[in-house]
Design goal:
Largest sheet: 8 strands, parallel, barrel
Number of strands: 10
Distance between the termini: 41 Å
Strand order of the largest sheet: 1-4-5-6-7-8-9-10
CATH topology: TIM Barrel
Helix content: 40-55%
CATH class: Alpha Beta
Order of helices and strands: EEEHEHEHEHEHHEHEHEHHHH
Structural class: alpha/beta
């Protein structure tokens, strides 16, 4: 069975103008990503500020992306919540709107145990019957999917991948030895660790930085697959990522997406934009990267 994608998937930001979703900017951004070689688009995830989007906005964003992509790459909808029934409803709606797969975060706040995780994920997968990407991001949820649990879930015909945002390679190796990687994909959820992630056999990344440098980030994966040493190629990207770490995601990346013309530099509370001088530092770092001044 082929993986749902190989290489770079983009955790798509949601553009706002006057505190409304800017659907024209969204279409432009999707076109930019497709023209620059991304392999998947992840809609309504963390980077999308999904907790502040209404259900109607989430559906319309997905509908716009599905239409714009027109089956050219895989579309993965973030539909997971800490409410199993609501996750099923959102996932079924995403399926109706044309999503190719769904991404399910671990329950947060009312976090469960490992038995509860298995029942939660399996019930959604079996009801919706779409490929499922598990999303393990303990830094945001205070909940992790144990390697033994990943192994159990990987036997479900619909659960086909994990987005691993632990940045823990001991965890990665333990998961890797427990799954059949021909059928179950391992995607990094951390842009800054892709060199080692790929060296250890990872299948790709669900990326934030690829919102603005999709071509360069996909080129890294392609170079690695052709047997090249990509550590030097990553260095300028690493410098840009260092600058991007000035604040929590998606505050910094939206300074750059807006700079490229994809909506205004707006976020919804509780998130606030960077101070003007910090945003300028970030834009200058991006321009230096694009100009090749890192060489």
């Amino acid at each position: 069975m082929a993986h749902i994608f190989e290489g770079v998937g983009v955790a798509l930001a949601t553009p706002f103008t006057n505190n409304e979703v800017d659907y024209n900017a969204l279409e432009k951004h999707v076109d930019f990503l497709l023209e620059n070689g991304v392999q998947a688009i992840i809609v309504n995830g963390t980077t999308a500020e999904s907790p502040t989007l209404t259900e109607e906005e989430k559906e319309q964003v997905l509908e716009v992306v599905v239409k714009q992509v027109d089956h050219r790459v895989t579309i993965i909808a973030g539909t997971g919540t800490n409410n199993t029934a609501k996750s099923i409803q959102a996932s079924q709606r995403a399926k109706q709107l044309g999503a190719d797969a769904i991404m399910l975060i671990t329950p947060y706040y009312n976090k469960t145990n490992q038995r509860g995780l298995i029942k939660h994920f399996e019930k959604i997968a079996n009801e919706v019957k779409l490929p499922v990407v598990l999303y393990n991001v303990p830094s945001r949820t205070n909940m992790t999917i144990n390697p033994e649990t990943v192994e159990t879930l990987s036997h479900n015909e619909y659960i086909v991948a994990i987005k691993d945002a632990t940045n823990d390679f001991e965890y990665y190796e333990e998961v890797k030895k427990r799954i059949n990687q021909d059928e179950f994909a391992l995607y990094s959820g951390n842009d800054d660790n892709v060199v080692e992630f790929y060296e250890r056999g990872g299948n790709g990344v669900i990326s934030v930085i690829a919102n603005v440098i999709p071509k360069e980030f996909q080129a890294l994966y392609d170079a690695k697959q052709s047997g090249q040493d990509i550590s030097k190629d990553f260095e300028p990207i690493g410098k840009l990522l260092d600058t991007l770490s000035i604040d929590v995601n998606p505050i910094p990346i939206k300074a750059l997406t807006s700079y490229l013309g994809f909506g205004e530099y707006e976020l919804r509370l509780p998130l606030l934009p960077l101070e003007v001088e910090d945003a300028k530092v970030l834009v200058d770092a991006y321009e230096q990267f694009k100009a090749g001044e890192h060489e």
